[in-house]
Amino acid sequence: MTMMGYKCMQQGGSVLYRLTGATGRRLVAAVPLVWLLVFFLLPLLETLQVSFTTAQRSVPPYAPLWGFDETGFFTNFTLDNYALLAAYWQDYIGPAGNSIKLAFFSTLVCLLFAYPMAWWIARSTAKWRVVLLVMVMLPFWTSSLLRIYALIGLLNPNGFINSLLIWLGLIDAPLRMMQTDFSIYMGMVLTYLPLMILPLYAVMVRLDDDVIEVATDLGASSVAVWWTVILPLTLPGVIAGSLLVFIPAVGEFVIPALLGGPDQLMMGKVLWTEFFRNRDWPVAAAIAMLLLAILTVPIIYARYQDGREDHASDPQAGTP
Q1: Dihedral Cα 74, 80, 81, 82, nearest 10 deg
Q2: Is the peptide bond between 236 and the residue preceding it cis, with omega within 30 degrees of 0?
Q3: Is residue 48 part of a domain?
Q4: What is the arithmetic mean of pLDDT over 109-124?
C-alpha cells in the first residue's frame, strides 16, 4: 500500500469517526427528547386546549376546540372555565392554600431528615456508601400504595403505635393520628424522603475536604463551618431536592385520600372530583393549568438564582 493510499484511508476513517460520533450523540439526545415530546408536551398541549373548550355529555366529554364541518371552519374557544374559577375562587383557594401548606412543610421536614442522612452517606467509606444508598432506594422497590397501607396500620387508633404506648402505660386512650395533618406529613416523608436525599448526596459527595479543613484550621467553629462553607456549597442540592419533593407533593392525591380527612382537602382531590365525579373536563383542565402555572414559580426562581450565582462566580461577568 502506498503512503498516499494509507493517508486517504486514515483521513476517511477520521471523517467516518467524526460523523459516527456526532450521529451517536444526536441519537442519545434525541431519544429522551422524543420521549418528553410524546408523553409530556403533547398531553400538556391537549390539557391546555381542553381548558379553552366546553363540556358535553359524550365521549370524550368535551367539545373539540376547532375543526371543520359542512359549514366550514368552527371553533369552541371560550374563557368561561377560567371565568368560573375566578367567580368561585373561594371553592378553590382553600384546597390550593392547603396543598401549598402541606407540601411546603412536608418539604421542610424531608429536608431536616435528609440533610444529615445525606451528609452521613457522603462521608462514609466507599463500601458502606453503596450499602446506605441501596437502603435509601429500597422503598422504591415496593409499591407506594403498600407503604401507605403499612403506615395506616401503624397510625390507626388500634394500630401498633397506640397499642405499644398503651402497653407501656404512657397513654390511657388511643391518640388520634389518622385523618390529620400529622398523618399526611408522615405519608409525604415516607414517600418523598429519598427524592430529597439523593440530590443532597450528589452534591455533598463532591465537596472538597481541604476547604472544610482550611476553615477549621482558621479557627471557625463547627456551626460557622457549616453556615459559611458547607451550606452555600450544598445549596444547589437543597434547591433540587426541595423542587423534587414540593412539586409532586402539591398535586398529591393518594396520600391525602387515604391518610387525610375532610379538613385536609388538596388540589389533587379537587381535580379528581372534577374529572371523574362531575365529568367537567374543561374546568378540571383549567384548574390543572393554573396549578401548573403556580408550580413554575419556584422553578423560575431557582433558575434565576442559579443564573445569579453563575454570573457572580464568573470573573469576566462584569467586564465589558
Answers
A1: 120
A2: no
A3: no
A4: 93
Compute φ and ψ for 257, nearest 5 degrees. Answer: -70, -35
Model confidence at 75: pLDDT above 60: yes
Identify the burial level of 51 via C-beta atoms within 10 angstroms of its C-beta, where 0-12 means exposed, 13-18 middle and 19 or more buried.
Answer: buried
Residue 141 resides in a domain = yes
Instruction: Provide the domain count of the chain.
Output: 1
- Domain limits for position 258: 92-279
Query: Residue 194: what residue type?
Result: P
| pLDDT > 70: percent of the chain | 87
CA-nearest of 75, 73, 79, 74 to 51 is 79
Asked if pLDDT for residue 97 goes beyond 70, the answer is yes
Predicted pLDDT of residue 212: 81
Residues 166 and 132: their CA atoms lie apart, in Å, by 34
Q: pTM of this prediction? A: 0.78
Q: Inform me whether the pLDDT recorded for 90 exceeds 60.
A: yes
Q: Looking at the predicted structure, is the pLDDT value of residue 45 above 70?
A: yes
Whether pLDDT at 19 is above 50:
no
Structural domain includes residue 65: no
275 domain-assigned: yes
